[in-house]
Every structure is written in structure tokens, then in C-alpha cells.
Model the fold of this input.
Amino acid sequence: MLLGLVMFGHTSCKKEGAEDLGLSRANGVYYYHFTDADRLWLQTRQGDEWRLENTSGYQRVYRANVVSNLKAESRKTSMGIPSFSKLLNYYDLVYLYLNRVDSLNKGGTTLRFYRDAAMLTNLNSGGYNEHVSQFYAEGENSEFVGNTDLISDYFSCRGMKFPRGAALNGPFQQLTVRGHTYHEVVAFISTARGSTCRALPPAALQELYYDRQAGLVRMVSQGGEVWERVL
Done:
């Protein structure tokens, strides 16, 4: 794993596919790699801090820890023995961990961005088209009510339901926060929790607004308290 800046260049290898398709070949197998459009989601730097403030002046502060794995290997292991594994493909993957570092100092957000074969349906069990590359985004916020739609959300109960595939390139919402307008915003609105999810207090987050390049810009609690990004 590599820690640090996510505004990376391409891993060097022979490219036989178009950059904007996110697909090439390396060592005889497919390489599902990030494109320039994907990298617009990946501009957070190691140690960056996002500060969101309520009307009382209290701040929630999130610090970024970036973990990237470019040209990672996907392998099929024979009889559980690594030495007999077969290389299936390469892929790009980035984890973005946003940990709270304010006075509460607990909780945060985990985001996962990666390239892989395109899903044929909305279900993982629906199969994949290995000849088509697709960009995926998944996430959870420990303070978010989330929802229990396990099919569409990677994380149970507190998952952030990102758009899929081409929809990650827009269209987006526009949102003005403290006089600054963000043009590429995705809204995460929670649904009622199921019986398998623990109850959360009114301070738990009901709405999250995430800009493709800036990150979290607004949060709204179940009790109606609004938190907005401070630049």
C-alpha cells in the first residue's frame, strides 16, 4: 500500500486501450485503471482537514488518511496455496479514511474508489463483463443514519449510496455553502433503519452533501442541526 497524495500519474505499462475507457492490457491480462475523470474524485491529500461548523460555532474536524494501491493484482488461488495462484487482472484502488480529530475525537468516514469489470446488473450475483471497465465508489459514515438497502450499499446500516458507473461523471447538484458554490455535489439522504441496525440519537446525521472535488460540504442531523464546510 502507498500512503499520501492521490493526484497520481499512471503506473507505467503498455497501454492498448483508450485512457478514457479505463481499460488496457498488461502481462496478457486486463488492467482496470483510473481515468482522468475518476481522478477528480481523488484529489484529497494525506493530512488534509475538512472543517464543518454549526450555527453555534462548534466544529467537526475530519483529517484524511489516503491509502492507494495502483495496479493491484487480482488472483485466483488454487487449493488455498498462494504459489499456485493465477493472475486474473490488475486494478486501481484508493481508500480515503476521514477520522474525526476534534474534541470528540471519534467516528469518521471511509470511502473506497476503484476500477473493476462492469457489473451486468445491480446485483453482485448478476455477473460481470470483463471486457468493460467500470468506476466504483462506496462509503460509510459512522455518524450517518444510512439505510438497510444491502444490495446497493457496500456498508450495512450507515452506507453512503454513491451513483454507479457513468453517473459518477454527473449530472450533479449545485450547492452554495457560506457564499461558496460547489458545482459537483452528490446528496446522500438516509432512509428508515431496519430492525438489524441500532437506533441513533437526534445528533446522528440524516443528510450528507459531498462534492466530487472538495469532499463533504454540508451535513444535516436528524434533529435539523446544519453543519457547513469552513474554508
